[in-house]
Design brief:
2 copies of one chain form a homodimer.
Chain A lengths: L1 E2 L18 H9 L1 E7 L5 H10 L3 H4 L28 H6 L4 E6 L18 E4 L17 E4 L2 E5 L15 H19 L3 E6 L20 H23 L8 E5 L27 H4 E7 L8 E3 L3 E2 H11 L16 H6 L7 E5 L2 E7 L2 E4 L1 E2 L4 H5 L19 E2 L5 E4 L15 H19 L10 E2 L11 H4 L11 E2 L5
Parallel strand pairs in A: 1-8, 2-10, 2-11, 3-4, 3-7
Antiparallel strand pairs in A: 2-9, 4-5, 5-6, 8-9, 12-13, 13-14, 14-17, 15-16, 18-19
Helix pairs in contact in A: 1-6, 2-8, 5-6
The complex binds calcium ion (CA) (2 copies).
One calcium ion (CA) binds next to loops of chain B.
Chain lengths: 488, 488
């Protein structure tokens, strides 16, 4: 279950003062809560590519070299997507007879060759891109929703989102798809992998009528409440079918809360610094809960440094499959953590675009580069760290610290406010260890072919497969590729 | 159980990432957690005076008129203290045959007439002031620890605190006092009131040897761990004696975490704005847990707007006693909240010194004055909001907003970052309601005689009662009163 832009501080169990997530909190109480779980990139597409490949975006191609250290993703005009050379989790699970379904946002490319059913999934209900809009279908087409190979309609036309009220019933559709899929696999006695990638907490945030106005937290909170309710229903479904003890469930988010959309359409990363788009803790530390009655004991809290990439390796391990050995896999197998409460030593690398910005080893985090966003963007009101300013840390220039990394202790200072003095013994000891780990990492790093460099309005969702049946085909403009511009 | 400078974000159950408070978290799981519980002032002395009188500092005299909107407390040179005209909780409980003990910090004045045994307590083990020092006993005497009427030694001499390592065994002494007192009352079959006012989390922060270095969070976390362990032992003691179902236990803190001492000696107020000394949420919203097996159902979360002053009224109610009717009491009886899960409508007033800075009604909070501290202090590095700057909110001048209060919605915006537009319908509606409540409040407000205006080095703890037996009497200087200076 992958949340979209949901922050560490959005769940009651993680300290959200409104405490409006009884089902997620119960899931946590019945399972294992991770306090130190990370995404692989503070933006949707690369994070999702990493989850499904077990590899950093710099390896699987979900980055750009158009500009230094800038996040890139898959808007409609992107030409690239997930390369055929990448091995996705569902492709491997197929070998063990799993039926694989994605519900919700794909975001690994929307052109034909990137379609999820070309990369291991058997079923799909959802959209290839973010639900932005409404568009005019002239300059920009409205985004399609797919069922399997074909589109079945477009956002704002066939799948309404009321931008004014925030009303949309999409989470209900995604819930129904999940329940139905689980029920069918249970009936057929088939093992299954459900990738439930809902996006109600990504701006424009939405909730269905029943949930509108039910939160203390405004529309964003309404969306969270609906998701919480849906997760409760899915877990109850597993229990009612008697397959909870056979089903490993993991919930996390693809990146930190989008503080630029706060407070009405953005969540909370408290107590961490900044949010989505940044490599501070607020951009990359995620809520994460593992649930598997009978296997994962209730009421556990793990400080294991985890990553969305570990879900790849761990899922393979739990399915009795091996990980690919012809390539670097960054995800580790968390099953000893989940099943035996062990802790595995491993670093966390914080990438933004083509640059390794920071590294965490133990409780120490070293920033080699700091950047929130440019002064130009900031002057326009785009603020990834609203209300937070740490001199020399939340910089508005890409500031290099490679010669003397900025070091923080995330135990004493989870908010990255107090750099450790360079002359201290603590600094010397920690940096030495970190630098040696970085050196090893860089020695083995072979960047993949960057997929997010080229844009072309001709590749937009003008005429997705199935459009003809719906009379929803639009005429694309002539191809005119350009080097995509990534502002941050 | 009153914590000192412990912040909302310091407990696992409130989202502290290190999650090092298993006993407090269990207490919360077995009882009721308050998300919206407040102190009456963001500083020790006035907060404690309010807890024991059920009245705002502006009424009970724990404020200053020496300067506008400045916090005052009871350092050694203070002449004032708790007036005889105030009725304290233990004085009333005595009428119902309760035995009352204070363990730890009193802070309501250290001169003879302010002694806790003169104000309703039967026993005392602790100190009248904060454990600052070490002093030279020439310019400033080291602070005394009392057992009942007499001092039994001084900090740093007889009760060591190693300022370098943070080692001190005081929490262990306070724990022993609590366990012993409870055991004795149980043996005598006497009802009791234990006011366990420990101060290990107030700078200089300390922990005993066993706990030093055990936290991810440094010395501050070590202190929290020791307190957590002690609370666990006290609750276990109640259960072992079979009196848990007869004992109402409440844990809260006297003010928000002291961010000026962070990260090594200060806690966390995440996700709230600023800390101790301020009337932002970080200064006044407190962790609060009620525990009473058999009476308060397990696993509850209450959004009741609560106050330390409610502990006065609620305790009286639970003891079957009435509240005084000859004076204004600001605390309300929370027993319907605790025992029946009800919610009681009531405002929260945020005072700083002699000024009502802000008011909360429902989820709206209106600031009539904003101030962090002066530019002069700020320039010296004294920062009550480290890393946080909200333009027009965390002001370094005392900024008046009485004509057009700054309004926040604490549900959508617990961090007080996004003032609501003055022209919005939400603003108009909320402000009208708030202004009418403020008008009522001010109509009934008769400020008490301010107790914290006059200082005199002659009143310091030179020769507390009992000093002669210990040969620890010091010679006071001649009396030379002055108007105390309160910098913030
Ligand atoms: Ca996202
Ligand atoms: Ca205090």
């Amino acid at each position: 279950m992958l949340m979209d832009d949901m922050g560490w501080g959005d769940l009651g169990v993680y300290g959200q003062p409104a405490r409006e997530t009884p089902n997620l909190d119960r899931m946590a109480a019945e399972g294992m809560v991770f306090t130190d779980f990370y995404t692989a990139n503070p933006l949707c597409s690369p994070s999702r590519a990493s989850l499904l490949t077990g590899r950093l975006p710099i390896r699987n191609g979900f980055y750009t070299t158009n500009a230094h250290a800038r996040n890139a993703y898959t808007p409609q005009e992107i030409v690239g997507g997930i390369p055929d050379s990448e091995i996705l989790l569902p492709e491997l699970l197929k070998k063990a007879n799993y039926v694989n379904k994605i519900v919700g946002k794909w975001h690994l490319g929307h052109r034909a060759q990137y379609h999820p059913l070309r990369h291991g999934f058997d079923e799909w209900f959802g959209s290839p891109n973010c639900h932005f809009g409404p568009y005019d279908n002239k300059e920009t087409p409205n985004l399609p929703l797919y069922r399997n190979m074909d589109m079945i309609g477009r956002y704002y036309e066939d799948f309404p989102i009321d931008i004014k009220t925030g009303e949309a019933n999409l989470t209900q559709l995604y819930l129904k798809e999940a329940l139905n899929f689980i029920g069918r696999q249970h009936n057929d006695d088939r093992p299954f992998f459900l990738y439930w990638a809902i996006d109600a907490t990504h701006a424009p945030v939405y909730a269905s009528k029943k949930f509108l106005g039910t939160s203390q937290r405004g529309l964003y909170g309404d969306a969270v409440r609906e998701i919480d309710d849906s997760v409760g229903q899915i877990l109850a479904h597993l229990q009612n079918l008697g397959i909870a003890e056979k089903t490993f469930v993991f919930l996390t988010s693809d990146n930190g809360a989008a503080l630029i959309s706060a407070p009405n359409e953005g969540g909370s990363n408290a107590p961490f610094l900044c949010g989505k788009q940044t490599t501070f803790e607020g951009g990359m530390r995620e809520p994460a809960i593992a649930w598997w009655p009978g296997h994962i004991s209730a009421g556990q809290v793990s400080h294991q440094l985890g990553s969305v990439m570990d879900l790849f390796t761990t899922s393979l391990s739990l399915a009795g499959l091996g990980r690919p050995h012809d390539r670097e896999i960054d995800g580790i197998d968390l099953s000893p953590v989940l099943l035996q409460g062990k802790t595995i030593d491993r670093p966390v690398f914080y990438y933004r675009g083509n640059e390794m910005m920071a590294v965490r080893v133990g409780l120490h985090k070293a920033h080699f580069w700091t950047w929130s966003n440019s002064w130009e963007e900031f002057a326009q009101g785009i603020d990834f760290c609203p209300g937070q300013t740490i001199s020399g840390v939340t910089t508005h220039v890409q500031q290099e610290h490679t010669m003397l990394p900025l070091l923080f202790h995330l135990g004493r200072d989870p908010g990255e406010k107090y750099p450790i003095r360079v002359t201290s013994a603590e600094y010397q000891g920690a940096i030495q260890q970190i630098l040696s780990i970085v050196q090893q990492h860089q020695k083995r790093m072979v960047p993949g072919e960057p997929q997010l460099n080229v844009c072309d309005r001709a590749v937009m969702n003008w005429s997705p497969p199935g459009c003809e049946k719906l009379n929803k085909c639009l005429t694309p403009p002539a191809s005119k590729p350009w080097k995509c511009s990534w502002p941050h």
